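Box 3.1 A note on notation
Throughout this textbook, protein chains are presented in two layers. The first layer is the amino acid sequence; the second is a token string describing backbone geometry. Keep the layers aligned when reading.
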Amino acid sequence: MPSVIDRIKRFARSPQGRRARARAERLARDPRTQAKIRGLLSRGRGGGRRRY
């Protein structure tokens, strides 16, 4: 039975995995996506506004 790492490697080399990686790289360069991630990280670290 292949290990989880082997399965991830196989997926990454497949055409579907390459498309997923290209999409992730494109989204990572998008300023709106970067702002969303910064907001989530700050909220996770306790820097977000609290809504009661």
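The chain is about 75% helix and 0% strand. The helical segments are 4-13, 15-29, 31-44.
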